[in-house]
Structure formats: structure tokens, C-alpha cells
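name: query_chain
kind: protein
chains: 1
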Amino acid sequence: MARRGVLRSAWDFLFAAGDDQLTPTPEPEQQPDPDPVRLVEAAGRSVDVEDDDAWRRLSGDTDRDLAPMTHERMQKMALYLWESNVLANRIIELPLAFLLAEGVSWSVQDTAMQAVLDRFWRDPINQMDLKLPKKVRELALYGEQCYPVFANEMNGDLRLGYLNPRHITTVVMDPDNPEQAIGIVTNKDRKNKTRRYRVIVNGPETVFTERTQEIRATFTDGDAFWFTVNDLSDGARGRSDLLAQADWLDGYDMFLFGELDRAQFLRSFVWDVTIAGADQAAVDARAAKIAPPRPNSVRVHNESEKWQAVTPSLQAGDTSDTARLMRNHVLGGATLPEHWYGGGGDVNRSTAGSMDEPTFKSFTMRQQILRHILREIGRYVLRQHLLAQGKPEPEPNDERLDVAVTFPEMVARDTSRYAAALQQVIAAVSIAVTAKLMTEATAIAVIAAVASRLGVEIEPADELAAALEEETRRAEADAFQTPPEDEVDPAEATP
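structure:
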């Protein structure tokens, strides 16, 4: 069967253009040159070594991206599948629920800076609690997101806009570093104008070379965040989470609709009437008068007429195995176990727990990307606030910009198992310390590793110092003190 879907759209477009554009023009028959001339020197021009524009950098090759037409087709197909294909919808929505169901928060140590973050998060236009799930969903669907920013020049407060990735024509990369995007060019609007946004980088413009700074200066329509997933280091655009599964999702959907049609056919039947000894005229006369019997009706005929209900025999076996094969192929590509979609098979509670681990590892990787996105947005919010106050550009390691992002716990921990393990670990390290086979610092570090599974973070050095200090206080409180001689009762004195 021919492969269909996203990756074939370019060929479909070429064939739709007409055969005259695909058929090569035959070359005229070559005639021998009666007076051949030997060329001594080839035509050309010299290229100045300093003329960089005349050279194409090997590191600047952007062929890693999809063709523009294919990229646009991918985005349309991903949105269509999310809207109409139940399996594709779950591939996008289920990770989203694990990542954001209970909400996300960010914080900094400085209370004044925390107020700036809270003001941005709760801004009536930003509404991050409401819009963050949409942004994460579309990041998975389109593989890229662009957020233009609008700043208040008085206090540096920011608001985020949104640019549909389908309206982006070009992502300009740094000519000296093809891994870094520096600008975004949009499609032409109704007024035949394009917008040029400068990609936000949390740092001064001096982090770029002079040539790159000159290029970034041409993007005068504002600043914008640019984030991608499923991309390559030397690629400019991201890819949808549904790109690899698009054709298989569509095929699985058609397969199920085919099974629906087959089920309808299997419910169909016809009445086959046999009239013994009848010629064509008698058959035609009987066919003109005959009618299918209604339910619970009475049919009377003699022995020369025989009625039989005939159902179609499609010779089609049970297709559940085929459906499971196709479904698992799609789910496996998305790193999702089949028992999450009602196809438990031979899975029990024990094996299901081990099958979930790769899925949660995949979710954790996406969570790290989202943490980076929110940290970059938060750092930019704080940087603009400081710059609006006339303060110098903060250093990258400035603690005031250290934004901590807290995600909800993806799965409930089995505390009973870790509690039992903690008890065994404490007993084991106590024996090792008593036998002088382990230092107290190492023992605390081992205990801290198990305690982290219960959601308790312990700093081994601080915990050991606090434990020793507490032990010293208890020892001093329990020490026996002899009262002074002048306070001894003479009656209790020994003769």
C-alpha cells in the first residue's frame, strides 16, 4: 500500500501541477561540431577572501528542516488529527494532564522579585494559569511556539502575545552559530507587510558577534520568545509530536471505519425464494407480487416454494489482533503503554508498574523543557524590571534571577515501600558506623537518598551538624551535677 499523509504531500503537489512540469524536455540531437575549438581557460570571476557573503558555510546548512510546504502540511495535519482522531487526541492530552493537572508555580528568594513574578503571572492579559496548558498543548502539536512581548516602559512589566507558527515564514539563525535563532519573519498580512521579531536571549547584545548584532538590529518590530521541540541542533524549526505517527493514526482510523462498515454488512441479509418447477414467466409473476414478511407476520405457501434468509459470508476472521497491532505501533512510537488505553492484554499490576517507567521518563524529559521555558520567561521578566529601574545588566548567575519552577507530582508515590526501605537503610548504616566501616557523613548521605523518594530533601552536611549539636545539648542536660557543699543539709551529712 502506498504511504500517504504528511510526508507525501510534496509529491502530491508536484503531480497536481501537471505532467508537463514533470516530463523532461528531450534534448535535440547532438550534431558533430565541424570546427572544434579547444578552450584554454574557463570563464569565471575571482572571489575576495574577505567577501563572506559569496561563501556558503558548511555549518550554516539548514537542510535539516522540513521543506516549507511539508512543514505547513505537518502543522495542519497535526491539528486535524488532534481534533478528529481520538487516539491522536489522547497522545497529546494525556501527557499534558500528567504535567500540568494540579498547576505550576514559580518562585524566587527575593520577596520584591517574587511580587514582580506574581504580577506577571496574574496579569489579566497573561492569565498564565489559564493559558499555560494551551501553550504546552500547541508546543506538542506544532513543535514550536512564538510569544511576542509587550513591555511597560515605566516599570518594565511585560505581557505575552501569541504568534501562530503557521504565520512564520523564516527563522533566521546566527551566521556564526547555526544552533542559535536570532530573528523571526512572518508572512505578509493584508497590507502586504511582514513583521520581523528579534528572538529574546537573556543577556546583553554583546553575547553575539558584531556581525550578528548588525543583523539583529534589522528586526525592529519587537522582541519575541522562540521555543522548539523535536528539533536538531542545526535546524531552525521544530516538529510535531504527531509527525512520525500521522500516517499510522490516519490508517488506524480508516481501519476502524472499515470495521464499522463490515459490522453493518454482517447485520444485513436477503430472502432467497426458490419456486420449484417454475419457468421465467412464473418467476417474474411471483416476483411482482412478493413482499418481504414483516416481523411476527404469517407466511403461507405450498411445498413448491421455499424461503431462506441468506447472510453474507465475508470470510473475515477476528480483527482484534490486527487492531491491537496497529494501535500498539502508534502508542509505542509515543512511548505510551497500551493498558493506559483500555488494551490491558496480559498486563497485571506488577508488570504495569514496570511498563510505566519509560513513559514517565519521557514525560520528565518534556518537563525539563517546560521548566527551561518558564525559567527563561521568568528571568526575562525580572531582567526587564531591573533595567526599567535604571539598574545595570545583571550577571547570568545573579541570585535575584534564579527562578525555581515547581511542577505537580506526576504519579503518587508508594510511601509504604519507601518507608520500609528507609527503616532497613537506617538499621544497616547504623551497624556499619558502629563497626567503623562507614563514616557518619556517608551514612547521612545514604539516608538522604532514600528520604528523597518520600519527598523529603536532606542536605547531608547540614543534617549531620544539626544532629551532633542536638546530641551535645541532650548530653549536657542529662549530666549529673553535684550540689555545692554549703547547700548540703547537715542532717543528711554522713557522720
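note: The first helix runs from residue 9 to 16.
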